[in-house]
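Run log // design_07
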């Protein structure tokens, strides 16, 4: 018995099985969404810590879209319309969706921009208002061009454009936003995806892990 005990100690006890996540109950989700809706600023945005407004608004907007509301109907339609209007108001002439003074966390201004593009593309995809779709389509096209212009020669994106610090995490976030824009009918040059794919392949180690940079 002692030998068996020592062997167990030496080899280590088997790890406990990973608990199966408990799905959230509808009442809890509804309560959380009501709280989220109540946090919307009168300007139409949500403000996160350290002045991180763009990414926070995008995340809140995506949560309300996932509830099933659209810009046209649903419990949070008005919240979504005001969030889209806020983005339209802060969009810069160069296509950037990040207003002056935004903290741009966690992936810098391009990360916040990508989050905004993902939300707007998702909202645009379910919008039945033709005038708003046309107006928002122009914002999305400019936002895509902004990301295309900021792609590095190596196919990545940098947390701070021009500083030479490629980020695999940011590149993944940008690709997700560009894919959503393309799915919503916004043109994205195929070469952008080819260059980014080549960059991701080069950043992948032999064991399949992707290096953080």
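design_07 sequence
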């Amino acid at each position: 018995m002692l030998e068996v005990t020592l062997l167990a100690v030496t080899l280590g006890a088997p790890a406990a099985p990973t608990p199966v996540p408990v799905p959230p109950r509808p009442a809890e989700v509804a309560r959380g969404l009501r709280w989220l809706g109540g946090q919307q600023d009168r300007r139409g945005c949500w403000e996160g810590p350290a002045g991180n407004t763009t990414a926070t608004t995008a995340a809140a907007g995506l949560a309300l879209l996932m509830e099933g509301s659209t810009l046209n109907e649903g419990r949070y339609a008005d919240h979504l319309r005001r969030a889209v209007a806020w983005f339209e108001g802060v969009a810069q002439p160069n296509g950037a969706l990040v207003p002056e003074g935004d903290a741009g966390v966690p992936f810098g201004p391009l990360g916040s921009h990508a989050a905004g593009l993902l939300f707007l593309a998702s909202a645009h995809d379910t919008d039945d208002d033709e005038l708003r779709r046309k107006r928002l389509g122009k914002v999305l096209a400019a936002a895509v061009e902004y990301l295309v212009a900021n792609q590095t020669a190596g196919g990545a994106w940098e947390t701070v454009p021009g500083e030479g610090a490629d980020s695999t995490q940011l590149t993944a976030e940008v690709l997700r936003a560009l894919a959503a824009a393309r799915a919503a009918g916004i043109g994205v040059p195929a070469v952008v995806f080819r260059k980014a794919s080549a960059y991701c392949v080069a950043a992948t180690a032999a064991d399949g892990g992707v290096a953080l940079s």
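The first helix runs from residue 2 to 11.
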